[in-house]
Amino acid sequence: MDIAKNHSFKDKVVVVTGAGGVLCAYFAREIAKTGAKVALLDINLESAENYAAEIRAEGNIAKAYQTNVLDLENIKATRDAIAADFGTCDILINGAGGNNPKATTDNEFEEFDLPAGTKSFFELDKGGIEFIFNLNYLGTLLPTQVFAKDMIGKKGANIVNISSMNAFTPLTKIPAYSGAKAAISNFTQWLAVYFSKVGIRCNAIAPGFLVSNQNRGLLFDADGNPPPRANKILTNTPMGRFGEADELIGGILFLMDENYASFVNGVVLPIDGAFSAYSGV
Questions:
Q1: Residue 214 — very low, low, confident or very high, per pLDDT cuts 50/70/90?
Q2: How many Cα atoms within 13 Å fall on the side-chain side of residue 265?
Q3: Which of 4, 163, 185, 195 has the greatest number of CB atoms lying within 10 Å of its CB?
Q4: DSSP E strands: which ranges in the chain?
Q5: Residue 194 is a catalytic residue
Q6: Distance of CA 175 to the CA centre of its chain
Q7: pLDDT tens digits, residue range 133-171?
Q8: Out of 177, 194, 260, 278, which one is annotated catalytic?
């Protein structure tokens, strides 16, 4: 089903960060189908431009902008370029983020006599941890500082952040990423309160485990069966399956749309097959 047809953002300027990645590029493509003018921001200009070209080939409006979400002056320059091309921002999707293997442990639990070479909590790399917190938290805060200034007082203005179900319950092995996404959920609520008097709503989605071309090899073996860690995910997902990228867009469009969600503010919406709600018993 083409969910986008239920929403109209005609002539609205929607800024999507992290849009050089598969998931946020998909969000941009679906949002463009609503009539919005979509700005795809990513540090990888070539990737963002390829996706923007696909959107334009479908008859919709999009342009890519090379942007480092950790560089405040660069973000400001991007804002000025978007304003010249499309007008000022109406809706901001903060999609930039990610994890780093330098801040991921090899073991789920600390144990006596771990095998030699195991990267435990004690060997996590300080630089890797800083990168994750900067990319996820500052990479959401700084674009919000820049673009929200132009959104004040605009009808239907709102921000959608990307949190994670591990913000509700931290996953093993990834303490920095879990902590950074918990910070995004908290920041989303903070922004909702802070901007409540000037007409900017702020919400977030918290995706669960999704299947994509990028991670299919991690979630399934050559025979199509989940390896042990992936099987744990399925066992603890009451719906008993992984999600698909297109199962996120309905939540995003709902939160974006003033006609549907005008009184929805400060919400972190889990889209995870009830993973975050399940205690395991």
A1: low
A2: 18
A3: 163
A4: 13-17, 37-42, 61-66, 91-94, 158-162, 201-207, 210-211, 243-244, 268-271
A5: no
A6: 18
A7: 999 999 999 999 999 999 999 999 999 999 999 999 999
A8: 177
